[in-house]
Amino acid sequence: MKKLSKPCGVLVGQFLRALPLWLVCVLGTAWAAEPAKPAEKKTPSIYEVLNVDVSLPVSATKGGEGLHDAGVAQAQKEALSRLLRRLLPSAEREKRKELLAALLKDPKRLVERTVVRGEKQHQDRLTMSVSLVFSKKELSEALVKEGISFNESPYPVVLLVAREDSLSGIGEQSAVGQLRAALTNAARDYGISLLLPLGDLEELSHLSWEGVERGDPAQLEWANTRYAATAIWAIRADANTGTVKGGTEKTRVAATLIVNRPGVAQATWQVTEEKSGKSGETASTALYGQVADKLVRQIADRWIQEHALRTGEARQQLRLRLVHNAQLAQQTKFLADLRALPGMREPQVLKSTARETVYAIEYQGSQEQFREALGKLAPHVEQAQEEIAVWLTQPPPQPRTPPIQEQNPSPSPSPERQESPAGSTGSGWL
Known about the structure:
This protein is α+β, with helices and mostly antiparallel strands.
């Protein structure tokens, strides 16, 4: 291969000078263009269960054969159990134990996608981290068939605020610190993402326990702006340990959790748990887990009851005209958000042009609820009798009707200021 005698930069310069001027300008414009914007974050689906951790002994299968498949099967069962906590309130899960047990026996048929995030085999154990997506169609049909009302709306992202920790002993976390860790684990099982404050100077000037406790809307607005959190939980806790007769040690944990969400009245939840054991045994760790699970379960039950689909509600059908003006990224995001709405079936395309697409829509619930949901997905929505029009960009301005000019008649002369008749020799005004 012949070696180039000139530097690469010189060769590029000669090449550009040989090109027509107009082509050089086009290439320069393309190179100077702004980088592509990253794709917008996909709206989370309640049917997606992330990061299920599995640990099982090598002896779980003969000679270790099929150990990977055994781990995946265990992750599928655990993930489906978590998903059912998000879909159904605790009372309904207790009532339908036999049906849910049958579903948990064969979770694989309800799984759309399984992704193993990490896998490591130790000397005697296999650990895995698995994320799964369940079939909305298969699972919802199984519940509707049994006449079960269920929830398809994920709980909003939460900013968890706690009082300042104070160590209760050397190397020992305070009650609120342990409860905060337990809440994070319990919330994960119900599909709730908890974020912890950064604690920097900006936060100290915008976020306070007192403001959250009194439900200050400015705190919610700030949490949404900085953390994209649309709810704030404020936690406080207290723990006491004492010895009773016979040397038995008794531990008591009391917790209060305040929940703030926009447009909803503030809610306060309180839980107290006690546990006794032999003197010197630590009972508090298990207690914090029980307290956290009770708190999160009550909050999740309230959310499910607010958002559950009613199996008795009629299904509605209408046409949806989506004006997208060839904005493919916005159209794709809107359709993903539309499919995620509770009770929504797959939209069917009726006709399509470069400017707009018309879909046949079928959903469960009232038109008012559907119209309100669309208003959160697009900047402009209009409803006719059997069709809803949605603009992903601002709609064209309406032609302005010129205002009617009122022709004011000449005011009649007032008695005090009468105009003199023509030819009068007077002053003209009295």
